[in-house]
Design a protein that fits this description.
459 residues, alpha/beta, seven-stranded mixed β-sheet, 30% helix
């Protein structure tokens, strides 16, 4: 059977664009359908605008730090509309680059929503046109989750709306202790907004190393964020311009904005995947094998829609591996182990490899090296912020299986450290690496004593 296209990609985010560009460059006939804007979550409503907001909020604290170095700044103020305008101009520019790169590679891009009609046929809902494709790639990403059992949930916003606030709230209630909630709590606090962060458990950042979680949690409170623990929202009550959030533990919090940052779901609703016979898991994610292939042999999926590792660079590498395998004659699968990731909290987090708990579960005996210290830069500012560094080592062969950093430039540092961890570096390799002084990162190669919990130290 002759098909209209060799490849039809649903979604022009990072994974879909990379896969489609590479496929088109081989001479394949490629069509990409995007119902929103080229660039996907990362460029339009995720990593990029969020990082700009982090930068904006950090400057507020920098003004205070400058005093310790002799600088006097009089009459400084923040213009939210000016910042948002400049940020969105940059987002528009980046989105345009994504679209242009696709077309320059020879792929077609349409501003339309695609839904399955059958395993090889898709309908473009705006134009009403149907097209067929030999191979189909699902790259629709994820979307913020909103609970259905909270009365008054219509008064809340998600992270997507946070990038379009026309005015800053005076007081915001953030629901959710994951990386999105923690990041926006830090951003809003840095911009002078009073912040209340409500989480279901005792500590933020579930899934991260316990030392990292505790450190970030304490820094949030030290920077003025009110944290309510063991609290699940049950009701949002509107009184005038104020919203009152009621929690399961009997506490309440009020603000003029309520942000729900309780996770993201794979964006598969309404795609008609049942008509194509594509299987989903209980969270609605597309089930794929190590080659990103679904249970339908000619249909593939990459990125957050598969709910494997939901990070932009992972989607890119998955998309690249798909194109190399299916269109370039180079069978490739992406290794999801030892992926570095960051939380742009304040201070930021950089992590690669296993947490201490996961390492003990996987390997049994592990050695821990960790340190906390006040960075040199803050010695003159009076800021009491501390850096945390932790190395997890497999005892049997001294291989470094996890590195965790909380502190200035942690994401930048962890990217380089991830190379060593991926290569299988040992603690001895770290030890024989010369320190770069003075730097925060030098602590990674100067830690010599294994950490012994106080309860295990000899009396």
């Amino acid at each position: 059977m002759a098909y209209d296209y060799d490849l039809f990609t649903i979604g022009a985010g990072s994974g879909g664009v990379r896969a489609s560009r590479l496929a088109a460059m081989t001479g394949a006939k490629v069509l990409v359908a995007e119902e929103n804007r080229a660039g996907g979550t990362c460029v339009i409503r995720g990593c990029i605008p969020k990082k700009y907001m982090v930068y904006a909020s950090e400057f507020g604290r920098t003004l205070e730090h400058m005093k310790g170095y002799g600088w006097k700044v009089e009459g400084a103020s923040y213009d939210h509309n000016l910042f948002m305008d400049k940020m969105h101009r940059e987002i528009d520019r980046l989105s345009g680059i994504y679209a242009r790169n696709l077309r320059n590679a020879g792929a077609e891009l349409v501003d339309d929503r695609a839904e399955f009609v059958d395993p090889h046929t898709l309908k473009l809902t705006k134009s009403g046109k149907t097209v067929t494709a030999a191979k189909i790639l699902i790259a629709t990403g994820g979307w913020p989750t909103m609970p259905k059992d909270v009365e008054g949930i219509e008064h809340a916003i998600t992270s997507a709306e946070m990038f379009h606030l026309e005015t800053l709230p005076k007081h915001i209630v953030v629901i959710g202790g994951g990386y999105i909630g923690v990041e926006f709590a830090g951003i809003m606090s840095g911009l002078g907004v009073k912040v209340c962060l409500a989480i279901r458990k005792e500590t933020v950042l579930r899934g991260f190393d316990e030392d990292v979680r505790t450190h970030v949690h304490e820094e949030l409170k030290r920077k003025g964020v009110k944290v309510i623990t063991n609290a699940s929202p049950t009701k949002i009550e509107k009184k005038g311009e104020t919203f009152i959030v009621h929690f399961s533990n009997g506490e309440t919090a009020s603000g003029d904005k309520v942000l729900f940052a309780v996770g993201r779901d794979p964006h598969t609703t309404g795609l008609g995947l049942e008509k194509a016979g594509v299987k989903l898991n209980d969270r609605g994610a597309v089930i794929v094998d190590e080659n990103s292939r679904t249970n339908v042999p000619h249909i593939f999926a990459v990125g957050d829609v598969t709910d494997r590792v939901n990070l932009t660079p992972v989607a890119i590498r998955e998309g690249q591996a798909f194109a190399q395998t299916e269109f370039m004659g180079r069978p490739t699968s992406f290794d999801h182990a030892d992926i570095p990731h960051a939380v742009f909290a304040q201070p930021p987090v950089g992590v690669v490899g296993l947490s201490e708990a996961d390492a003990r579960k996987k390997y049994g005996v592990v050695d821990i090296y960790k340190t906390k210290f006040r960075p040199m830069k803050d010695m003159l500012t009076g800021d009491e912020e501390r850096v945390l560094m932790k190395i997890v080592v497999r005892a049997e062969d001294e291989r470094v299986v996890g590195v965790h950093i909380v502190g200035p430039d942690a994401p930048e540092i962890i990217q380089a450290v991830a190379i060593a961890v991926k290569m299988g570096a040992t603690k001895a390799d770290f030890d024989r690496t010369c320190a770069l002084h003075p730097s925060i990162a030098e602590e990674l190669v100067t830690m010599r004593e294994k950490f012994v919990p106080p309860e295990l130290k000899p009396v």
